[in-house]
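Many introductory courses stop at the sequence. We go one step further.
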Amino acid sequence: MALRADVAELLAGAGVLGVDVEEAVADEHVRWSVYRRVVSAAASSRNRDGDRAIVAAILRDPVELVSKSAVVALVDEVATRASGPAEFRRWAAGLLPETDRLTGEGHRAFARRRVEDRLLHLSVEDGRVPSPAEPAQATEWMQHVLAERTNAPAVLALLAGPGSTRKIRNIAENRAGGGASGRRRAGGGRGQARP
C-alpha cells in the first residue's frame, strides 16, 4: 500500500517515533497530525534538500484537503525561518511544481497564494515598501498580518486606505498613529475635547 509506505518513510525521515502507522493510514486526522510533526521537523532543519520529496509524498495522500494543509504548513514554517525573501523565493520555486499535483484548482491556487503572501511579508520585513497594488492583491489574512506586525509607516498607510476590510484599515490606521484616538490627541477632527 503506497500510503502506508509514504507515511512510514516520512516518519522515519523526520525521526518521529511513537506513531502507529496503521492508525495513521486509517484515519486522516491522525495523518494530519503526522504530517504536522514531519513538517515541523523538516522546517527546523537547515538543510532544505529533502523538502520537495516530503511534499511529493504528502501530496500523494488521498485526502487532498489534508495534503494541501500540510504543504501550506510547511510553507508557513519555512517562511518564518527564512533569512529573507530571496532565500524563500528560491526554495518556493523548487516546491511549487509539486503543488501542480493537487487536483483541485482551489487547492493549487491556495498553496500558490500562500507563497505569494509569505514573499510579500518577507520583503516588507526586509525593508521594501510594496507598490500600492501588492497589499491590495494579498489575501485578507496577509493584509491582517501586515497591519498587526509591520512597523513601516508607508506599509501601514497603504493598508489604511485600500485594506480589504474595515478591521484591517482600522488596525493599520491606528498603528500608524492616524486613528480617531490619534486625531483627538492631536486636537483635530470630531470628538475634540473642549477646554
